[in-house]
Amino acid sequence: MPTSYQAPMAGDKAKQASSSQSIENNMQTEAVRIKHLLAQKDQTVITIAETDTLPAAVQILRDKRIGALVVTNSDGDLTGILSERDIVRKLAETPGQTLPQTVAENMTRDVVTCGTQDTLVEVLRSMSEGRFRHMPVVEAGMLKGMVTIGDVVNYRLNELEHEALQLKQLIVG
Question: Where do the CBS domain residues begin and end (predicted)?
Answer without folding.
Answer: 39-98, 107-165
